[in-house]
Write a structure and sequence with these properties.
40% of the residues lie in helices and 20% in strands. By secondary structure, it is an alpha/beta fold. The protein is globular, with a radius of gyration of 18 Å.
Amino acid sequence: MKINILVDNDKCWSLNIVRKLIPYLKKKQIIVDHIWILPNKLSNLKGSKISYWYLKTFGIIVFLKLSIFYMLALFYNFSNRINSFKDLALKYNINYNYINSTNNKYLLKNINKNDKKISLLLTNHILKKKLINQKNHFFINKHSSILPSYKGLMPYLWTKIDNADNGITFHLVDEKIDSGKIIFQKKIKIKFNSMIEFYLDIYDRFPICFFQSLRNLKQKKFIKSKIKKSYYSIPNHKDYEKFLKKRGNIILFSDFFKINKLL
């Protein structure tokens, strides 16, 4: 089996999870044939506006901790000579393209003409209808909640505010955000001390969960969830204050010693 990966150009989380995913899938006889790299995006924010949002929303101390965490990941990448998706693709002899949006004509043409039937999404970019509606091609998205609850951005923050369960879901993509048939879902009963600790756990188990989602798709095993639907957009500082009142944390110093789960 061959698959595509559409990913945002994040050199901390996204680069390292794809780096771990490629050899894992290869052992399962699944080949990553093409990586499509999109600009970083958070909701409608791009470039330096993303960093400013983190600073404005979470404050200077959290922003500095997140920056240090990010720099540690970049240092690891540098020491392993994988500083970009280009480096990663060349190492494994994978086709790659940097594109500006999912509306890219070459992306559509490539998916339309070849025999690859699955694309994994690790991006905040929204797919265009003509891309989603390609025949015999499935787009799979990962979401860090038990869908259909807590659709949208940063579900951990909202589950903490609501004292709700955490989890991971893989689903097929349709025209609605975080919708589509669910092909894998797992409730995570661990009590996390921070949002970073939660995402470290999510990405540590990512390869196994994604492989299981592929098996379920092949066997047409779809999950019908009875959980109440909910959707949350990008949080603001007032939302963060509610999160703090529930003793929530974005990042702790102890998270620096757990970064190996990502790397």
